[in-house]
Amino acid sequence: MTYIHDTITKLQKTSPAQAEFYQAVEEVLDSLQPILETSEKYQLHSIIERMIEPERQIMFRVPWVDDQGKVQVNKGYRIEFNSALGPYKGGLRFHPSVNAGIIKFLGFEQIFKNALTGLPIGGGKGGANFDPKGKSDGEIMRFCQSFINELYRHIGPTTDVPAGDIGVGAREIGYMFGQYKRLTGNYDGVFTGKSLLWGGSLVRKEATGYGCVYFAQYMLEAKGDILAGKRCLVSGAGNVAIYTIEKLYQLGAIPVSCSDSSGTIYHEAGVNLDTLKELKEVRKVRLNEYVTAHPDAKFIPVADYPADGNAVWRLPAELAFPCATQNELSEADAKALVANGCIGVSEGANMPSTQDAVEVFLDAKIHYGPGKAANAGGVATSQLEMAQNASMQRWSFEEVDEKLKVIMKNIFISASETAAEFGEPHNLVLGANIAGFRKVADAMIEQGVV
Ligand code: NDP
Question: Which domains can be identified in the chain, with CATH numbers?
Answer without folding.
Answer: 2-188 (3.40.50.10860), 207-369 (3.40.50.720)
